[in-house]
Amino acid sequence: MSDAPVEIIADTEAARAAVASVDRFLRMIMVPDPEGARAFMAPDMRIRFTGGRQMSDPSECAAFNARRYAWVKKRFERYEVVCGADDGCAIVYALGTLHGAWPDGTPFEGNRYVDRYVLRDAKIVEMSVWNDSAEWLLQRAGLQQ
């Protein structure tokens, strides 16, 4: 995580409130604090992690990350909210980079990520996660073209 200012692209107060919820959720996930993160989730939240992995709880994200990385954190760069967000529905994109270490302790930084969140009635109902980690792992294995 970073203390640098994060750019927010949001055109309404409802959009800014959606960003605030996603930001707090992400900060809880990165601790990791799955219990705290659940406060921002709808009970039937769906998580689609890298590689299309289906999950339903932030603890599953932490468990996956613990297998892929020695440790990993996000540097938040920007939040973008799709125009037309209101109190009933908002779509928020979170963009930035990952930094951390691979399981062998080799450090990395600058690994791009994009997360997409759908909020309904101020609760996150969908989370989709994309990043460059698979590409970086292929490169480390000498398999990238």
TrEMBL record:
SnoaL-like domain residues: 22-127
Cross-referenced Gene3D superfamilies: 3.10.450.50
Pfam families: SnoaL_2
Transmembrane annotation, as ranges: none
InterPro entries the record matches: NTF2-like_dom_sf (IPR032710), SnoaL-like (IPR037401)
Protein name in the entry: SnoaL-like domain-containing protein
